[in-house]
């Protein structure tokens, strides 16, 4: 199969988790409480959402408008890879009409730093992605890590909606 820049191809994969991996963070928006916090910015955050826009029973949603056009949301708990050479991935279901960025946040001991992991483009249907965090972990070489979702309303749009579900940090 050939791939070309700018073109989308739908692929279907069957994925199984290896026995040696660990789930260092999980949020499915169906339990008590939400494991995401506002890090910066101002927006109307709606967690959870049910109905036709939800992935399963409930999903998380962020709605942007001209008054609330930027927010950063961070995982409430840190994760700690067993070693800097371990692989680490973000698994995420999403749909959105507005792009958003995912950053790896690190506590360096003497301060904090971030590296961008991916920019996610709008998709009208639910998608699952795996984002490799390994390079960012090696770059930061931090004491602990979190994930930041940065949402900025696209220029020219009056609103933006981002739906998230089944957020997992997988290491091992």
Topology record:
Layout: E1 22-27, E2 36-42, E3 44-50, E4 58-65, E5 70-75, E6 88-96, E7 100-107, E8 112-120, E9 123-132, H1 134-140, E10 144-152, E11 159-171
Features:
Jelly Rolls, 1 helix, 11 strands, mainly beta, six-stranded antiparallel sheet, 172 residues, single chain, five-stranded antiparallel sheet, 4% helix
Note down, in words, how this protein is organized.
There is one protein chain. The protein has 172 residues and is mainly β. The chain has one domain: Jelly Rolls (Sandwich), CATH 2.60.120.260. It has one helix and eleven strands. Strands 1, 3, 4, 6, 9 and 11 form a six-stranded antiparallel sheet that branches. The longest helix has 7 residues, at 134-140. The two termini are 30 Å apart. The model has no long low-confidence stretch (mean pLDDT 88).
* Range of helix content: under 10%
CATH superfamily label: Galactose-binding domain-like
- Largest sheet geometry: 6 strands, antiparallel
Radius of gyration: 16 Å
Task: Compute the separation of the termini in Å.
Answer: 30 Å
**Given the structure, what is the number of helices?**
1
Q: What proportion of the residues form beta strands (DSSP E)?
A: over 45%
Oligomer designation: single chain
Which CATH first-tier class would you pick? Mainly Beta
- Which structural class is indicated by helix and strand composition? mainly beta
Number of domains: 1
CATH fold descriptor = Jelly Rolls
Q: Unreliable stretches, pLDDT < 50, 5 or more residues?
A: none
Apparent shape: globular
> Which CATH architecture is right?
Sandwich
The total count of strands amounts to: 11
Secondary-structure element series:
EEEEEEEEEHEE
């Amino acid at each position: 199969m050939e791939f070309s820049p700018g073109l989308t191809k739908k692929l279907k994969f069957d994925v199984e988790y290896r026995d040696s991996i660990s789930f260092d963070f999980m949020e499915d928006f169906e339990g008590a409480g939400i494991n995401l916090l506002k890090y910066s910015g101002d927006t109307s955050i709606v967690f959870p959402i049910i109905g036709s826009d939800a992935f399963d029973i409930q999903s998380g949603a962020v709605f942007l408008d001209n008054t609330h056009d930027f927010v950063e949301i961070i995982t409430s708990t840190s994760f700690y890879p067993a070693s800097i050479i371990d692989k680490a991935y973000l698994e995420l279901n999403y749909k959105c009409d507005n792009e958003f960025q995912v950053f790896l946040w690190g506590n360096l001991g003497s301060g904090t730093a971030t590296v961008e992991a991916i920019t996610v483009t709008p998709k009208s249907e639910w998608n699952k992605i795996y984002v490799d965090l390994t390079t960012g972990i090696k770059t930061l070489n931090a004491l602990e890590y979190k994930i930041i979702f940065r949402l900025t309303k696209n220029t020219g749009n009056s609103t933006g909606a981002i739906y998230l579900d089944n957020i997992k940090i997988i290491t091992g």
